[in-house]
Design a protein that fits this description.
Elements: H1 3-12, H2 32-39, H3 49-55, H4 69-78, H5 86-99, H6 105-117, H7 129-142, H8 161-168, H9 172-189
Helix pairs in contact: 2-4, 5-7, 7-9
């Protein structure tokens, strides 16, 4: 069953049991579009040029993991990262880059160097934020579905966040398990 058919099937079922909803997010019962509207961080015109260059698919030099602003906000919502902290932003960008199979170690290093030195202060990541980036990268790389940054999320805007997350295998339980694995790996490396 393809993604669209599966989502249609899910939407025809009874409403999602509240027990199944991600306890860490109150956005799961909203449609994806409604949740993104509630999240609203920046409009395209507010995105600094250097960030546009590295992260937007319309840029000729964008890094793997590049995604338009609406898709980026959809991933924020799906990951339950609806806050505005740099650590949450780093997690989402790490997830998106990790989920893109074209991303390699050089892309990660280049992103970290530029985003910690050339990004405007408001958007600049510290080395502490890169721990969140690394966890997000690890999570994105482990996903069954790859290259989510290439999905046209407008096709899913009328489905609930819960349905879309379930379709792509995103859950707080998966993230928690991965965080344990990452912490074990990180402890061995350091």
């Amino acid at each position: 069953m393809d993604i669209q058919s599966n989502l249609t099937f899910q939407s025809q079922q009874t409403k999602t049991d509240p027990e199944e909803l991600d306890r860490f997010s109150d956005l799961d019962s909203y449609t994806l579009h409604e949740a993104v509207q509630r999240l609203f961080i920046d409009c395209q015109a507010d995105v600094p040029f250097i960030i546009w260059l590295l992260e937007n698919p319309a840029s000729p030099i964008a890094l793997p993991g590049k995604i338009d602003l609406y898709g980026h906000d959809c991933i924020h919502v799906m990951l339950g990262r609806a806050g505005h902290s740099l650590a949450e932003e780093a997690f989402v960008i790490g997830f998106t880059m990790g989920n893109d199979l074209q991303t390699n170690w050089f892309h990660q290093l280049l992103f970290k160097l530029i985003s910690s030195s050339l990004y405007p202060k408001k958007y600049r990541f510290s080395w502490k934020d890169f721990r969140s980036f690394d966890v997000g990268f690890f999570y994105g790389r482990s996903m069954q579905f790859s290259n989510l940054n290439r999905i046209d999320f407008s096709a899913y805007q009328n489905y609930t966040v819960s349905q879309v997350k379930r379709q792509f295998g995103i859950s707080k339980e998966n993230e928690t398990e991965l965080l344990k694995s990452f912490n074990s790996y990180y402890a061995v490396q350091n």
